[in-house]
Amino acid sequence: MSGELLRAEGIGKRFGGFVALEGISVSFAAGQLTSIIGPNGAGKSTFFNILSGALTPTSGKLHFRGHELNGLPQHRFVHQGISRSYQITNIFPDLSVHENVRVAAQALTVSYDIWRNRARLTELHARADAALDAVGLLGKRNELAKFLSHGQQRALEIAIALVSEPELLLLDEPTAGMGPEETKDMVALLERLAEKRTVLLVEHKMKMVLGLSKRVVVLHHGRLLADGAPDEIRSNPEVRRVYLGQSEGYG
Amino acid sequence: MTSPPSGEVIAKPAPGGFGRVLDHRVLLSIAVLAVLPWLLPSKALAVNVLIYGVVVMGYNLLFGYTGLLSFGQAAFFGAGAYFTGIAIGRYGVPWFAAVAIAVGLSTCLAAVIGVISTRTRGIYFSMVTLALAQLVYYVALQAASFTGGENGLRGFTVDRISLFGLQVNFLDPVNKYYVLMVLAALAMWFQSRILNSPFGAVIEAIRENEQRARACGYDVERSKLVVFMLSGAISSLGGCMLALHLSIVPLDILHYQTSGMIVMMVLLGGARSFFGPFVGAASFLILEDVISLWTPHWQIFVGAIFVLFVLFLPKGIWGTLLDVIGIGKARP
Q1: CA nearest A42: which of A176, A225, A247, A244?
Q2: Which of B6, B194, B217 faces A139 most closely, judged by CB atoms?
Q3: Which of B28, B45, B266, B283 has its Cβ near the most Cβ atoms within 10 Å?
């Protein structure tokens, strides 16, 4: 296992009187795929939003590669090397597939240049096409994103997150709403991605998570319930009680 | 649209056929404007199309391309006109320098209004821009010693213009049209550069999905402020043109009805299209001209036509036309 990439120390989040997360301390090593699971309302999405900067924690600290992330505005997180996809498809619908990814690649280099012609920034075009190729969408590059199928939009979502070459890729339920065929393709894609970079996955499909991940973190009622290899999680009685029991039955 | 065979990597999107026409949108637009005075019933109407076309084009950057519905664009139109008039009439600044100063000061005004308004979203943004623009209106009304108050600003007639040593009689409507067209051409060239630039991609991303643009790493608030200033700068140039054209600045130019007219023009012509603002300005002004000859209640008819457009032609005249001949999707 290589060095630590991200460390969360006592992360808590309250919405008014409601405690969404409390005292989450966990660290993620570079170069492996970790899944975060938990029943509905366990705080997975809140935790993800905190890791990607969309929400500020009410307590606790985040360290990424030794730097503290607290207080950074959300748009700076990508520049630090943390990129995410969304549970509900979140793309630029009226732009071409290629432009969806190209504009994401551009964010790291130029934002306020009103003078150069962006068609001439050929490196960005090439990087966008490479990211599209990685998710198998290169053939659709000139179509408007809104005309893609659901599965293709999910893949585009990942290409947008991927093109910034993040050190940490956060994927929020990449197979949400997918049929078995599309899910199979997505799992293959996730396996390829995990070879090269650190991936954090929030997912509902238990079998998929246990097969895919090196490590599984279980949240329940905003607290850390278990943390370990898939086999340990599978045999952990607490986890079976709150979560696995629902989908796989006791015994 | 056809997609290239899988695996083929093309660095630059290559719009085929009609799409190439749009590569020369500035030259084409200038060519159309150059013959406009001979197509329209009067030269005065053509000058107005030119002026409002520039104002609406600036607004289109904000509304069409960034998706920010402002109800206060009249503030910059008016600011451009008043600053030009005051610079020429009160301080004796040469006309060209006056235009440059006016655009600069109007951009500063846009920065102030933008800092406040771009922090809000949706209907709140619209209301804040409306309120701040009305504030500018009342300032112009009260500061009568500078602005002429209710009577408007007078006393700065530009009758001769020297261009590269050449004396041009600016009272001649044809000369006036072509001198102002040079300013309009500059604005079009500037706008086209913005749309083609990396920043042009940022504002479209913000329009399409603000949350995603932020997650991609863009500072959405700052980008909105920058585009608000650029939009104000271009619209204010239209105001400068109006001041040079009329030799007076009517107070009404700052009123919210002018802002509403700008919104109507952009929707009539087609938001998100390069030439749409000029088409929108021309259609609106021609409608006003024709129907007001026939009844003083022309606004009822223009309003009805506007409603029909919003319901049935949401892309406006020009946007729909581009779709029909199949080049609308190729480029912004």
Answers
A1: A225
A2: B6
A3: B266
- Say if CB A5 and CB A168 are below 8 A apart: yes
Residues B120 and B114: their CA atoms lie apart, in Å, by 10
For residues B213 and B202, the answer to whether their CB atoms sit within 8 Å is yes
| Nearest chain A Cα distance for residue B119, angstroms | 15
* The CA-based dihedral angle spanning residues B308, B310, B312, B315, taken in that order and rounded to the nearest 10 degrees: 130
Which chain B residues contact residue A78 at CB under 8 A? 215-217
Starting at the edge strand found earlier in the chain, the sheet holding A168-172 runs A82-84, A168-172, A198-202, A33-37, A215-220, A223-228
Question: In a 10 Å sphere around its CB, with 0-12 CB exposed, 13-18 middle and 19+ buried, how is residue A143 labelled?
Answer: middle
* pLDDT tens-place string over residues B51-61: 999 999 999 99
CA B295, CA A176: separation in Å to the nearest integer? 60
Strand partners, A35: A201, A216
Task: Tell me if A160 and B204 make a contact (CB, 8 A cut-off).
Answer: no
Could you report how far apart the first and last alpha carbons of chain B are, in Å?
Answer: 15
CB count within 10 Å of CB A164 equals 23
Interface touch B196/A121, C-beta < 8 Å: no
A216: left (phi over 0), alpha (psi -120 to 50) or beta: beta
Angle ∠(A188,A190,A196) on CA atoms, nearest 5: 115
Sorted by sequence, the CB contacts under 8 Å of residue A178 that are 6+ apart come out as: A150, A151, A154, A186
CA distance B220 to chain A (A): 8
User: Per-residue pLDDT tens for B180-221?
Assistant: 999 999 999 999 999 999 999 999 999 999 999 999 999 999
Q: What value does the CA radius of gyration of chain A take, rounded to a whole number of Å?
A: 19
Q: Which has the closest alpha carbon to A230: A215, A241, A240?
A: A215
Boundaries of every domain in chain B: 43-256
| pTM of the full structure | 0.90
Structure tokens at A211: 């097969």
- The packing angle between helices B276-294 and B298-312, to 10°, is 140
Q: SS3 for B200?
A: helix
Rg over alpha carbons for chain B, rounded to the nearest Å, is 20
